[in-house]
Write a structure and sequence with these properties.
Radius of gyration: 26 Å
Helix content: 55-70%
Largest sheet: 3 strands, mixed
Strand order of the largest sheet: 1-2-3
Length: about 325
């Protein structure tokens, strides 16, 4: 289906970097405060929460440097540029979230079996401070998360922590009022479930880009049909469609030019490129023209094999 990014506002890179930097500083400060509070109170739960918050700070640090790297120009070593640094950072952060989520489930199960004593007041106070910090960090990165998978992963870390802080305040209140120790692992399980659900929902997008998958919002059969419908195109084959990074799609393919139209090959190729840009927001297209009389025979529409080499590719043939 046609896809366009028209009207999408982007935040100035330097402003975005400053927001991420201050989010890192705030989270590192919270981590130190939580560890100190945990040591003074003898609370392992607070120290564990501090470690979780440290993972947020590390996620933001990774995101910060990935943003810097991604803006570097292409060179002889990285001819496609460095834009995918942010996708790699997103994959690292989502993977970390999944590991943390599974660890929280493990700890929660142990505490369900053997409930531990918890200092309710200290938990509520520290969790209240953490909630303020997490909310501030989320505000700093919210607008950036809309345009970057990398920042979205770091943002999700903080959202999960903010929800966790709310749940911990609730749990601490019940412990103060009723000494209900089981609420601590129950709330932990709920937080872990949210972290895992969001992480598994988002990590597929990062993997798809790194595996050179086609953009999920674009139907490859539509791209083939619209390219073939350009006047002068006899056929399209050996098509590759992928995302160079989150907001830039690319395609390369062979164009078979109709017999008697070879003199118009350049104009036909330009018309195909224009259609790709207008209808699918594909601005990067590499097209190889072939005379219909000498075009590849028995060529697969997608990829460089023959039609029978890949299941389902026969559907795209004329």
């Amino acid at each position: 289906m046609p896809h366009s990014h028209r009207g999408h506002a982007h935040l100035d890179p330097e402003t975005g970097d400053a927001r991420v930097f201050w989010a890192v500083v705030v989270n590192l400060g919270l981590t130190v405060a939580q560890i100190a509070g945990g040591i003074l109170s003898g609370s392992l739960a607070l120290i564990a929460d501090a470690i979780h918050n440290l993972s947020d700070a590390l996620a933001l640090i990774i995101a910060f440097f990935a943003r810097k790297i991604a803006r570097r120009e292409a060179d002889a070593t990285m001819t496609f540029g460095y834009g995918r640094a942010e996708i790699v950072a997103a994959l690292i952060n989502y993977t970390t979230l999944i590991v943390i989520g599974l660890y929280l489930v493990y700890e929660a199960v142990l505490r369900l079996i053997d409930p531990q004593g918890v200092d309710g007041w200290l938990v509520v106070i520290i969790a209240g401070v953490a909630l303020v910090v997490d909310a501030l960090t989320a505000l700093l990165t919210f607008s950036l998360s809309k345009e970057s998978m990398n920042i979205r992963a770091a943002f999700l870390h903080n959202v999960a922590d903010a929800l966790g802080s709310i749940a911990v305040i609730f749990a601490g209140t019940l412990i103060i009022l009723y000494d209900w120790r089981l609420i601590d692992p129950i709330v932990t399980m709920m937080i872990a479930a949210y972290i895992l659900w969001q992480s598994f929902a988002e990590i597929g997008g990062a993997i798809r880009i790194l595996m050179l998958g086609s953009p999920p919002q674009i139907d490859v059969s539509d791209v083939l049909d619209r390219m073939r419908s350009v006047d002068g195109v006899a056929d399209v084959h050996h098509l590759h469609l992928w995302q160079m990074h989150e907001h830039e799609n690319a395609v390369d393919a062979h164009l078979a030019i109709k017999a008697g139209r070879w003199a118009d090959a350049d104009a036909i190729k330009q018309a195909v490129k224009q259609r790709l840009t207008d209808e699918f927001a594909i601005a990067h297209a590499t097209l190889e023209c072939e005379c219909a009389a000498h075009a590849c025979t028995d060529a697969a529409p997608i990829g460089h094999g023959r039609p029978n080499d890949h299941d389902g590719q026969e559907d795209y043939r004329h």
